[in-house]
TrEMBL record:
Residues 7-62 form the HTH lacI-type domain. Pfam families: LacI, Peripla_BP_3. PANTHER family: LACI-RELATED TRANSCRIPTIONAL REPRESSOR, LACTOSE OPERON REPRESSOR. This is LacI family transcriptional regulator. Gene3D superfamilies: 3.40.50.2300, lambda repressor-like DNA-binding domains (1.10.260.40). GO terms for molecular function: DNA-binding transcription factor activity; transcription cis-regulatory region binding. SUPFAM superfamilies: lambda repressor-like DNA-binding domains, Periplasmic binding protein-like I. Keywords: DNA-binding, Transcription, Transcription regulation.
């Protein structure tokens, strides 16, 4: 045998003196069984030849696979990276493989990723990220996921309810409200909210939840920017240049808050001496900022693991609320 090329199923079949179809039934998990002795012989030869089964072939043989697809907005964002980490750990515990696709904030890109992964015949799909206000595109995505459910595949989303399958729903309004109450308890009455693009439902949930929990007469300004570190930095520059008299700022995510705080530091604005700053999510960088960031903690890694298990086992008709937890650090102080 030529050892410069990968071992094929035909190589295993030839060495084991069985047909390719029989070798495939053993190694690709076909429901058509062979005798225990013959199966053991084929597996032993496959191990000797270091044969690696083809995932797509396994999917064809079983009409499903051991692959779970995860679609998320941005693999470099710690929010999504921690969710993916939790799912990968749970996948290893369950003996399944994960394929991760990045989609940006675009339901049509999510649909395209679903189509590109169809050849793997995923056993389940997990869609991670805020839903959008793009109603037509969201309807198209829902239809594509409904087709997956009808074929027997598990479907779970992490974000707002509305897609087919199970849903883990971070409590954004409530968490933002807790931040507002914390700042109000410190005497703050003039606020700025740094918000992301309005096409993301999470942006409205956090902004509205924060505003709703403020005391009567509170003054609130909004700076809209990109939902990213650079967007937060740009918002920080605008905040400093505007001369706003806010004493507290709610930045809609920790990643954005990292950029925002950098801009304030460059402008000589003291946190929390001149202005208190809070974020949301409690990604690792929040604790490493100077000063460390007060925020709301979401159990991101646990959410990923829970989504993986739900995608494999169900239920597919439940919305599970995921509450946040206030984490008070050095970026907030009394007026």
């Amino acid at each position: 045998m030529d050892h410069t090329r990968p071992t094929t199923l035909a190589d295993v079949a030839a060495r084991a003196q069985v047909s390719v179809a029989t070798a495939s039934r053993v190694l690709n998990g076909s429901p058509h069984k062979v005798s225990a002795a013959l199966a053991e012989k084929v597996r032993k030869v496959a191990e000797e030849l270091r044969y690696a089964p083809n995932v797509q072939a396994q999917g064809l043989a079983r009409n499903t696979s051991s692959v779970v697809a995860m679609l998320l907005h941005d693999v470099t964002d710690p929010y999504f990276a921690l969710i993916a980490q939790g799912a990968l750990v749970a996948a290893g515990e369950r003996g399944v493989q994960m394929v991760i696709g990045e989609t940006g904030i675009d339901p049509d890109a999510e649909i395209a990723q679903l189509a590109s992964l169809r050849g793997f015949r995923p056993r389940a799909t997990i869609v991670v990220g805020s839903r959008t206000t793009l109603a037509d595109a969201e309807d198209r995505l829902a239809a594509a996921l409904a087709t997956s459910r009808e074929s027997g595949a598990g479907v779970v989303s992490i974000g707002q309810p509305g897609l087919p399958g199970g849903c883990l729903y971070p409590q954004n309004r409530e968490g933002a409200g807790v931040l507002a109450e914390h700042l109000a308890s410190l005497g703050h009455r003039r606020f700025t909210v740094v918000a992301g693009p309005e096409t993301l439902k999470v942006v409205a949930e956090r902004r509205e939840g924060f505003a709703a929990a403020l005391p009567p007469g509170a003054d609130v300004a909004v700076i809209a920017t990109d939902f990213s570190r650079d967007g937060g930095y740009a918002a920080g520059r605008r905040f400093c240049e505007s001369g706003r008299d806010s004493t507290a700022v709610f930045v809609s995510s920790d990643v954005m808050a990292g950029g925002f705080c950098t801009a304030l530091r460059e402008a000589g604005v003291s946190i929390p001496g001149d202005v208190s700053v809070v974020g949301f999510d409690d990604v690792p960088l929040a604790a490493d900022l100077h000063p460390p960031l007060t925020t709301v903690r979401l159990p991101l890694s646990d959410m990923g693991g829970r989504a993986l298990r739900m995608a494999l086992d169900g239920p597919f008709d439940q919305v599970v609320p995921i509450p946040g937890e206030l984490v008070v650090r050095g970026s907030t102080a009394a007026v």
